[in-house]
Write a structure and sequence with these properties.
Layout: H1 3-15, H2 20-35, H3 44-61, H4 75-99, E1 109-113, E2 120-123, E3 129-132, E4 137-141, E5 149-154, E6 156-160, E7 169-173, E8 176-180, E9 184-189, E10 194-200, E11 203-207, E12 210-216, E13 220-225, E14 230-235, H5 238-244, E15 253-258, H6 259-270, E16 273-276, E17 285-289, H7 295-306, E18 309-313, E19 316-320
Parallel strand pairs: 5-7, 16-19
Antiparallel strand pairs: 1-4, 2-3, 3-6, 4-5, 6-9, 7-8, 8-11, 9-10, 10-13, 11-12, 13-14, 15-17, 18-19
Helix pairs in contact: 1-4, 2-4, 3-4
């Protein structure tokens, strides 16, 4: 049966003119489609959307008819009811075909490792920066394309997470889960426990047996004990905070510093090339704290301070404006 003949058959079913053999043929086709029905794979909210679309589709296609008592259905009324059922099934299949989520593409996961006694910088696709400490590794997707940004850490790392309220950044480290929107903190795991020291912002911690968890704020440290499945929070010492940033370019605090030096720091931290429309921009001085700020936020703050503009393309930044004598 070709497409034209099939459409004619459906038309006869909808008008109540189909024979029993034709109805049987359509019923068989619907049974075959049911086996391929992806409806069961949808979430509750997605199923509800489908139901609403089916209802709207039926409302637009079906003509309002007078009520008919079931026990007094004649042959024509029977075919009208059967046609409505067929139409519902066809609409369900059509809607599912276009609304069911397509199979997820396999996401390439990157593993990055650092050697002993060294810190390696990793810039993720969302511009978050990870300072991977010695003998550590991190697993992350090549591109973050979901509602969450998920990574897995083994060992120790300092995170500078790019702010994104619509996409929480989630780190899995052993049995501990850290969830943030945008902040900087250090995670260190060993054979006995896992430490989380927050530098800025706040971090939500939880574990498999403790979904409620707790919130860790700046200058606080949390220690997770897997054996007891407990998370305790204590105040962090200043020397601990300083030690966690050693070997990184975390600090971006400047006091009356020439732009030439600031540009060098930006270039080194964010792995970008900075071009100047006026070489005299190197003479300008700035007092500011760009610590824990993304590249774009840093450039925006500099532009506002010096009343200049910036352009960014791939890994190249151009600062446009008058310099300082």
């Amino acid at each position: 049966m070709d497409e034209k003949e099939f459409k004619e058959l459906i038309g006869r079913c909808l008008s109540g003119q189909a024979t029993k053999e034709e109805l049987s043929l359509v019923e068989k086709w619907l049974d075959q489609r049911k086996q391929k029905d992806p409806f069961g794979k949808l979430s509750v909210s997605e199923k509800e959307k489908v139901r609403l679309k089916i209802f709207k589709g039926l409302s637009a296609r079906m003509v309002e008819a007078e009520p008919v008592k079931i026990e007094r259905l004649g042959a024509r009324a029977f075919y009208r009811v059967a046609a409505a059922v067929i139409l519902l099934s066809i609409l369900t299949y059509s809607i599912l075909k276009f609304t069911a989520p397509s199979p997820m593409k396999e996401i390439a996961v990157i593993k990055y490792e650092s050697a002993a006694e060294t810190s390696k910088k990793v810039i993720l696709s969302d511009s978050s920066i990870v300072w991977l400490k010695g003998n550590s590794s991190i697993f992350y997707p090549e591109e973050f394309n979901g509602r969450e940004r998920n990574v897995r850490l083994v060992g120790e790392a300092l995170f500078e997470v790019a702010k994104n309220a619509d996409s929480p950044f989630i780190i899995q480290c052993g049995g501990l889960t850290a969830k943030v929107l945008g902040t900087s903190f250090n995670i260190k795991s060993n054979e006995t426990d896992i430490e989380v020291l927050v530098l800025t912002g706040k971090v939500s911690l939880s574990s498999k047996g403790n979904s409620k968890g707790l919130i860790v704020l700046p200058n606080e440290k949390a220690v997770y004990h897997p054996a007891a499945n407990q998370i305790e929070k204590i105040m962090a010492k200043e020397k601990e905070r300083v030690a966690k940033t050693v070997g990184t370019e975390y600090s971006m605090l400047f006091h009356a510093t020439r732009m030439e030096e600031i540009i060098q720091r930006i270039t080194g931290k964010f792995d970008v090339r900075v071009l100047l429309s006026d070489a005299r921009l190197n003479n300008c001085t700035i007092t500011a704290d760009f610590t824990d700020q993304s590249l774009e936020r840093t450039l925006s703050m500099i532009s506002q301070t010096l009343e200049i503009e910036y352009e960014m393309s791939n890994r190249q930044v151009t600062l446009n404006g008058a310099g300082c004598d």
